[in-house]
């Protein structure tokens, strides 16, 4: 039997995860921003710590848009390069998520939950990206 050249290699679960992660990240960003504002009002938040926390959140949001765009584009066009770049930007997002989980000035239980969910999504997405890249390279 001849090979079907029009076979779809792009991953539907990965595309769905990009969509869900995009929605979740909007919630994550707003919740984290609200908590940073809350913490700055309720706790004695050192002035020189507020700016880095806010800057990290905004850098993370730029990375997130880039990560999701490249990942989605790479998956839909079945190209490993954008998907690989998305995987690389995920590393930056993971580092920033760990920062908010462990190293930010004040870590609330809500921070722990939000970042644990985000890190789980990154892990799942990374496994699916590697699988998709392997399918594209064949």
Automatic annotation (TrEMBL):
Protein's membrane topology: Multi-pass membrane protein
InterPro entries (alphabetical): Uncharacterised_TM-17
BP terms from Gene Ontology: non-motile cilium assembly
Pfam families (UniProt xref): Transmemb_17 (PF09799)
Protein name: TMM80 protein
UniProt keyword annotation of Membrane present: yes
Keyword list, A-Z: Cell projection, Membrane, Transmembrane, Transmembrane helix
GO annotations of cellular component type: ciliary transition zone; membrane
TM segment ranges: 16-38, 50-70, 82-106, 112-137
Subcellular location(s) per record: Cell projection, Cilium; Membrane
Top-rank taxon: Eukaryota
Lineage of source species: Eukaryota, Metazoa, Chordata, Craniata, Vertebrata
